[in-house]
Amino acid sequence: MRRRLVSLAAILAVVAPGGSVWAVSPEAAPVPVAVASAPALPQAAPLQGAPVADLVARVDIPWSRFQLDNGLTVIVHEDRKAPVVAVSIWYNVGSKDEPAGSTGFAHLFEHLMFGGSENSPQSHIQAMSAAGATGLNGTTWFDRTNYFQTVPTPALEQTLFLESDRMGYLLGQVGQDVLDLQRGVVQNEKRQRDNQPYGLASYAQQEALFPEGHPYRHSTIGSMADLDAASLETVRDWFRDNYGPNNAVLVLSGDIDEATARTLTQRYFGTIPRGPVNVPAGADIPTLAAPVEQVLRDRVASTRISRAWVVPGMLDPDAVPLSVGASILGGLASSRLDNALVRGDQTATSVSAGAQGFHRLGFFSYSANVKPGGDAAAVAARMDAILADLIANGPTQDEIDRVVTQYAARRIQGLEQVNGKASALAEGQLYAGDPDFYKTELRAYAAVTPTQVQAAMQRWLSRPVYRQIVEPGEREAYVEAAAAPSGATPVEATVIQRVARDPMPAIGDVSNIDFPDVQRTTLSNGIEVVYARSTTVPVTRVAVEFDAGYAADESNTLGVHSMMLTLMEEGTTTRDSNALAEARERLGASVNLGASMDRTAASLTAVTTNLDPSLVLLSDVVRNPAFAPAEVERLRAQRLAGLANEKTQPGALAARALPPLIYGEASPYGRPFAGTGTEESIRALTREDLIAEHAAWVRPDNARIFVVSDLPLAELAPRLERAFGDWRAPAAPRGTKAFPADIPATSARIVLIDRPQSPQSLIYGGAVLPLSGTDDLLSLQAANSVLGTDFLSRINADLRETRGWSYGVRGTVSSLQHRLPYIVNAPVQANRTGESIAALIAQYERFLTEDGVTAEELERTINGDTRGLAGSYETSAQILGALRSNALYGRPDDYQETLASRTRALTAADMDAAARAVIDPSRFVWVVVGDAAVVQPQLEALGLPVEVRPAQ
After folding, report:
1. Which residues of 173-197 are buried (b: 16+ CB within 10 A; e: fewer)?
2. Planar angle of CA 599, 546, 516, nearest 5 degrees
3. What residues contact 612, with CB distance under 8 A and at least 6 apart?
């Protein structure tokens, strides 16, 4: 890798003066922010992007297909951009195939598939982590179960061996102990979902929409009772009936060709015998006999009103028109529901609409969260009237064009990752028998007309509707799992005859990554541009970054920075909120304002065809926010509703409580990392505060621009110069942040936030480390991979994989520029809260004293961290993130290329020393969000001081 400095003058010299293919209207030129209230300003001329047909033509995934004698369908996509291969296997079985009394089996079996197989008894995750897999996971849905990972090319053979072993040789590894453990893990996953606000609403909706016995009536996660009843033999039968090679599609996408794929798949999968043919359950599209309305109560901050119908599935000609109609109704940022209820009469704080297409049928739904104190009945009537008008009069062509452009742009961006392409091919093959089905969908989107959208909505949404209202109140009693599940009773099961296979192939040498060359230039006003090239897809990503972040908030104006960013997205001096939304949609571009604790960024992702007008839009948002008084008040009301909602969410409650407990309230880090402020500070904010915040932080002398694009820097620099080169700093002084030299000492204690009716407790604890983000953290992060972040870390292996008390536990060194916190996040079943904290403390104390990194853990960590580098910088988004983090933490441009050699040099002693020098569990403050009536006695038994706080 080489570092290059490029002269902007030299670049401009080779660009023809008439090279621009776009024009900026005078109204779009940068103008100062107006301080006083003013009448509505003239709106800038609409920005136009490339025709949709041009975008659609860019979406292409070449493939070849063959089938083994045992029925396994294999699809190969060759992409040599990086030495990685995505291995994605989709089984034609999902929750709709579950018989009565066996709900949740498909998902439960997905978990069992990760427990190892007959010829690789270690955890599949453990084996794949050591192989350097990235994007490793599995998912279950109504129609399918899939497993996927992206691996370095030298690890491909071992990966295929492991996938084939769990397809053909699994059951000898699935015993009663494995079943009981994963049953507990799945039930904790269910508790974690159900514990969220509105978490029980979807169960009621499915049961109301479908008659008894319909295959789509039950949730994929299943019921506690059916999970309790899952016996070893019934689970094994599920595998025998559904996991044969003739019921699967295997996609290999990346650094591979068809000839190699034929050889390897025959070698590893060819001897697996065919299984039964799974004929997906018949599933008609039910119509309610009459409208159904249900009122539910939950511990929520605002009333949610929703409507739903069952509609045709993804293969039906009406699927695309319904999807487009849903986007126009409530999916676009400029949707009709948004314009009427959120921006217009401001009776709702948020709205949504969507059409989910599955194999046999789909769901069309829309919803609104009522503004606290608002008239829910009036909002319901208004949202129904908006749908009725859309059905009666149809959409406009411009609305359709915006939906389709956005859809096509996202498809193009999805082509960058080899696993994303694998998923598109697998889905088409599984459901339509055609890997090119994504093209069929794209053509349908590009050709859809207002008449087709209107007709589809009239046809399906004029039928009786399911109406649901979720009001604030007390939940119904939660249906818990049995203390002694019937399926856990050992019964004699068939003895599995293991089949000997050839030894598992070794992983070859994995070469070091070749990170893209980093180039730099400087705009005429002094803004530095940091650039890297990625030519996989015609996409450009830009981040205009400012040294600010939520740490820029003063203690008496918490939330002002995030409010400023929110307002910047809601109108400029020449484009109001709706005009901005429509402009993004017409270009298929995303323009987002966001912040971490240390940095603020305005980010653009655009198809390069539409880059020029997209940069006009980005520049307008960054430089010319209007902070219109009406918008300030609208967004203030939304923020206050959001803060009320935070008080109902376990994660938000914990994250709000912990920072001041460990940093002290005087530190810029001693406030909630979400940056949303407090009710008092948000109520007190003025428009002048927002204008002053923008002047202090969002300015050219505080900015740096990061770009990753398929275009060379010589073509990008003039575009960036036009967008930002004439931007001048205001007279106001630039903002500064002050971090105290000392952090208050902490000692072990517990703060319990009482959230009644919580089936699960969230444990969120930690302390501030004597380190900063600019320090060399390689040894510490490697040690903490063993202790806290890896799936097989000590704490996750204990609480999830051994005890089954949690769906997942992590302990992380959080990435901040200055003093770093170490934070443990552990959602656990409520009746194990105290024991879980005790187990966590014991794991940390043991690791940090006599039981450090083992030889096996050292090898796994080094192999996983080095082999996984190739897949860690596959996309332009990953490269952009690396450029930004290198700048934030003061790293050299070739930092990523040094990681492999530095990691291979680590020793267990290095890792132990790094962790033991800074992590001290005796200083951890533990925040617990849970039902005090259930967990307080458990916590008091630990012998630590316990403080109880109300959630409100």
Report:
1. bbeeebbbbbbbbbbbbbbbebbeb
2. 80
3. 20, 21, 22, 719
| Cβ neighbours for 724, distance < 8 A, ≥ 6 positions apart | 523, 525, 527, 544, 619, 622, 623, 700, 703, 705
Contacts of 443 (CB under 8 A, 6+ apart): 56
- CA distances to 17, 390, 487, 864 from 857, in Å: 60, 59, 34, 10
> What are residue 237's phi and psi, to 5 degrees?
-65, -35
Q: How far apart are CA 327 and CA 590, in angstroms?
A: 16
Give which of 595, 679, 686, 698 is closest to 641, Cα–Cα.
679
> Measuring CA to CA, how many Å separate 28 from each of 372, 573, 578?
37, 9, 16
Question: Higher-confidence residue: 99 or 695?
Answer: 695
Structure tokens at 40: 């509505």
Q: In the sheet where 925-930 sits, what is the strand order?
A: 810-813, 819-829, 760-772, 925-930, 749-754, 946-950
- pLDDT per residue as tens digits for the range 755-774: 999 999 999 999 999 999 99
Q: pLDDT at position 935, please?
A: 97
Query: Is 435 in contact with 81 (CB distance < 8 Å)?
Result: no
Q: By C-alpha distance, which of 707, 723, 704, 703 is closest to 877? A: 707
Residue 485 confidence (pLDDT) above 90: no
Q: At what angle do helices 105-112 and 176-194 cross, to 10 degrees?
A: 120
DSSP label at residue 155 = G
Partners of residue 90 on adjacent β-strands: 146, 249
**Tens digit of pLDDT for each residue in 12-58?**
222 222 222 222 222 333 333 333 333 455 678 888 888 888 888 88
How many beta carbons lie within 10 A of that of residue 313, not counting itself?
A: 22
Q: Please tell me the number of Cα atoms within 13 Å of 460 on its side-chain side.
A: 28
**Spatial contact of 729 and 699, defined as CB atoms under 8 Å apart:** yes
Please tell me whether the overall predicted TM-score, pTM, comes out greater than 0.85 for this model: yes
Separation of alpha carbons 168 and 269, rounded Å: 8
Pick left, alpha or beta for residue 42 (phi over 0 → left; psi -120 to 50 → alpha; otherwise beta).
Answer: beta
Question: What one-character-per-residue DSSP string does 451-481 give?
Answer: HHHHHHHHHHHSS--EEEEEEESPPPPP-PP
Q: What are phi and psi of 792, to 5 degrees?
A: -95, 20
Q: How high is the pLDDT of residue 43?
A: 77
Nearest to 217 by CA among 360, 91, 315: 360
pLDDT, mean of residues 921-940:
98
Phi, psi (deg, nearest 5) at residue 875? -110, 160
pLDDT in tens, 432-455: 999 999 999 999 999 999 999 999
Question: Going by C-beta distance under 8 Å and a sequence separation of 6 or more, which residues neighbour residue 260?
Answer: none
Phi, psi of 301 (to 5 degrees): -90, -25
| Whether 555 contacts 665, CB under 8 Å | yes
Question: For the purposes of burial, counting CB atoms within 10 Å of the CB of 294, is it exposed (0-12), middle (13-18) or buried (19 or more)?
Answer: middle
The angle subtended at Cα 85 by Cα 81 and Cα 88, nearest 5°, is 135
